[in-house]
Amino acid sequence: DAGVIQSPRHEVTEMGQEVTLRCKPISGHDYLFWYRQTMMRGLELLIYFNNNVPIDDSGMPEDRFSAKMPNASFSTLKIQPSEPRDSAVYFCASSLGGLANYEQYFGPGTRLTVT
Amino acid sequence: RKEVEQDPGPFNVPEGATVAFNCTYSNSASQSFFWYRQDCRKEPKLLMSVYSSGNEDGRFTAQLNRASQYISLLIRDSKLSDSATYLCAVRSGGYQKVTFGTGTKLQVIP
Fold first, then answer.
1. Can you tell me the distance from the alpha carbon of B36 to that of B5, in angstroms, rounded to the nearest whole number?
2. pLDDT tens digits, one per residue of A51-99
3. Nearest-neighbour CA in chain A from B96: distance (Å)
4. Is the dihedral of CA B28, B29, B31, B35 positive or negative?
5. Over the stretch B92-101, which tens digit does the pLDDT of each residue have?
6. Of A55, A23, A75, A41, whose CA–CA distance to B96 is shortest?
7. Is there a contact between B45 and A106 if contact means CB atoms under 8 Å apart?
8. β-strands B55-57, B11-14: how paired?
9. Which residues of B touch A103 (CB under 8 A)?
10. Is A107 in Cβ contact with B97 (below 8 Å)?
């Protein structure tokens, strides 16, 4: 089975540009999570969805960040305009809801550099 | 106090040694606990869930101590391939949201 798929794997952009990160969760998983990881702050949850509906976006740092999940197999995280402090690795993860789960499976991440 | 805390290490241990990491959590109502492994420049990968009765998977043993609010991971007979950062994760409340620790770095030395 394919795992979580993310694209692009690397993104280098200039300050002020729009950045769009993409994620395809594991088929059948009904939860999708976006995380950001930096050396200073570790792994931070930005937002998560259940059945394509945003449940908790309290981790989204500011209005420059937005996330959508138009269908069960695709999600985007957009940063507009990007700033150098947004440089980080962005992970998408998915999980299967239900009583016995909560285990999350991560994609390979997008390494974002904003210059 | 952070929700989830780990000693960042690094723990440098020789091959064959036994090493243990702890992870403390602040919310006494936390319900699910996990250990993830993250290799350099890779994504976190689920190592094991931690059950109330403790659980073992080969050389790895996870324990939960609710009274003192920590989970532990014991690695026996360390291998060079065990070198990685180990993240603990804690779920609180009735939702899927988990909080991750910042990780403990393990380096197994030949």
1. 14
2. 999 999 999 988 999 999 999 999 999 999 999 999 999 999 999 876 5
3. 6
4. negative
5. 876 778 899 9
6. A55
7. yes
8. unpaired
9. 34, 46, 49
10. no
